[in-house]
Write a structure and sequence with these properties.
Elements: H1 2-17, H2 30-48, H3 52-67, H4 75-95, H5 100-111, H6 115-122
Helix pairs in contact: 2-4, 3-4, 4-5
Amino acid sequence: MKRLIQISVFIFMIFCSTEKGFAQTATSDSSDSQLKELIYAKYKRQVLAFDKKEFDNLFFEFFQRQNDNRITLTKEEFYGYTIKIAIYAEKLGLLYKEQKEDAQRTKQEWFNRSYEDYLNSKK
């Protein structure tokens, strides 16, 4: 029961923390899709081995760095964070079959994040 609550809180945090939430488009930017796939392949095994504490650290580090006006993440850094978060969402779907659809939707939302949108939010 405690684990179910933790997962629910995690999914709620992800939905609340996204700027656009459900309004994001389902297609990813074709110019960045190769980079995203490379990052996905590079970090998939590492992120699947993350425990909750490691993921929480990654998640909060991303939002601290993203919201810091003194820092502008590079494209590789930005996608490194978003793809790792997407991979962890995928992991949750594999672990908790009853939440597979939510995890897949969350993974897709993180995978679809755009570096261009991030840069526009920094202006």
